[in-house]
Specification:
Largest sheet: none
Low-confidence stretches: none
Number of helices: 5
């Protein structure tokens, strides 16, 4: 069901459903859990949460190491996190310069 919401671009709902599936699958199906972790990581990335996405994808890559797309998603997390930090730095420097005036 999370994949259906992903296709409908309802990434928040998809993340919620993938999280629920992950909790229910648990130790019963470790391979399935890593697939769900990958999908959850993609949803976090699309929602602008690169750190959460990185944590999910890093765990998924431990098992899904033969998938180059998973490694590319990890790189996208790093890039998105870098951009967020740059934006934060620019906005904080603007606030500081406004206070000095």
């Amino acid at each position: 069901l999370g994949c259906v919401h992903h296709r409908a671009r309802q990434h928040g709902m998809a993340a919620l459903l993938f999280g629920k599936a992950l909790r229910e699958a648990g130790a019963h199906a470790p391979r399935v859990s890593h697939e769900v972790l990958y999908n959850l990581g993609v949803q976090h990335l699309l929602l602008g949460r690169p750190e959460a996405a990185f944590q999910c994808l890093k765990q998924a890559c431990a098992v899904l190491d033969g998938r180059p797309r998973a490694w590319i998603r990890l790189a996208e997390c790093c890039f998105a996190n870098h951009l967020l930090k740059q934006r934060d730095d620019v906005s904080s420097s603007r606030q500081t310069s406004d206070l000095v005036r």
